[in-house]
Design goal:
Protein name: 26S proteasome non-ATPase regulatory subunit 10
Organism: Gigaspora margarita
CATH class of one domain: Mainly Alpha
Shape: globular
CATH architecture of one domain: Alpha Horseshoe
InterPro entries: Ank_Repeat/CDKN_Inhibitor (IPR050776), Ankyrin_rpt (IPR002110), Ankyrin_rpt-contain_sf (IPR036770)
Structural class: mainly alpha
Number of helices: 5
Strand content: under 5%
CATH topology of one domain: Serine Threonine Protein Phosphatase 5, Tetratricopeptide repeat
CATH superfamily of one domain: Ankyrin repeat-containing domain
Mean pLDDT: 80
Keywords: ANK repeat, Proteasome, Repeat
Low-confidence stretches: 92-96
Pfam families: Ank_2
Order of helices and strands: HHHHH
Length: 96
């Protein structure tokens, strides 16, 4: 996992680049898996607040329900919910 290539890129560098390319090419962020969950569910459950914001800002839908009738925010770790709502609240205030 922490190995590097000849340019000293790690798997994290490569994953970041792939994510950027997917967003730049308008990947559908609301495609669902067999549990009716999108990629937004995964980052919410794992507690990746910054990733949650990136996906939402690029079209990830927080209102889509999974097979259990839960939205991504229902499954978010508590800290991510606070991060999400605080960040959005601060952005709304700063844009006024």
């Amino acid at each position: 996992m922490n190995a590097t290539d000849e340019a000293y890129w790690t798997t994290l560098h490569i994953a970041s680049k792939i994510g950027t390319l997917l967003l730049e090419r308008s990947a559908n962020l609301n495609l669902r898996d067999q549990n009716n969950q999108t990629s937004l569910y995964l980052v919410c459950k794992e507690g990746f607040g910054d990733c949650v914001l990136v996906l939402i800002e690029n079209g990830g839908d927080i209102t889509l329900e999974n097979a259990e009738k839960k939205t991504p925010l229902n499954l978010c770790k508590k800290g991510v919910k606070s991060f999400y709502f605080t960040t959005n609240f601060n952005r709304r205030i700063n844009s006024c």
